Amino acid sequence: MFAKFVTWLKSLFYKKELQACLIGLQNAGKTTLTNALCNDPDRDNTIPTIGFNVREVTKGKVNLHLWDLGGQNKFRNLWERYCNDAQCIVYSYGRWNCFFLFTM
Ligand SMILES: Nc1nc2c(ncn2[C@@H]2O[C@H](COP(=O)(O)OP(=O)(O)O)[C@@H](O)[C@H]2O)c(=O)[nH]1
Ligand SMILES: [Mg+2]
Q1: Do the Cβ atoms of 52 and 67 come closer than 8 Å?
Q2: Rounded CA gap, 9 and 55, in Å?
Q3: Where does GTP bind (predicted)?
Q4: Helix, strand or coil for residue 98?
Q5: What pTM was computed for the model?
Q6: What average pLDDT does the segment 40-67 reach?
Q7: Contact at 8 Å (CB) between 63 and 56?
Q8: What residue ranges line ligand 1, CB within 6 angstroms?
Q9: Residue 104: pLDDT over 70
Q10: How far is CA 67 from CA 9, 20, 22, 29, 103, in A?
Q11: For residue 57, how far is its CA from the centre of ligand 1 (angstroms)?
Q12: Dihedral sign of CA atoms 5, 10, 12, 17 in order
């Protein structure tokens, strides 16, 4: 009970860090979604992602670290490594579709 109270008290003052990985094939819209989540929809997304891009944005009390991972074949073996440390995995399939998987 006391531990829950302390957790609640802490949550009033501290931000929560959330690591989210965006994965999916090339041109699936990962970078576009990342830019949109960072309130930066007009940012140039014509350059293919080499390796990964990491962006940080604060949403309320959550500090969101977005790992926009490259979709090319040569980068896909990196997905597992990054996803292991993430609490949220966003799988983008096709430009209009994605689903969120939380591993908290
Ligand atoms: N029409 C349309 N185009 C999109 C959408 N999302 C992304 N695109 C376009 O699809 C291309 C690839 O998107 P990008 O975000 O770079 O894909 P990524 O390779 O998964 O990072 C870009 O030219 C985007 O402008 C969408 O919802 N609608
Ligand atoms: Mg990209």
Answers
A1: yes
A2: 28
A3: 24-31, 71
A4: strand
A5: 0.82
A6: 88
A7: yes
A8: 24, 26-32, 45, 49, 71, 92, 95-96
A9: no
A10: 30, 6, 6, 13, 15
A11: 20
A12: negative
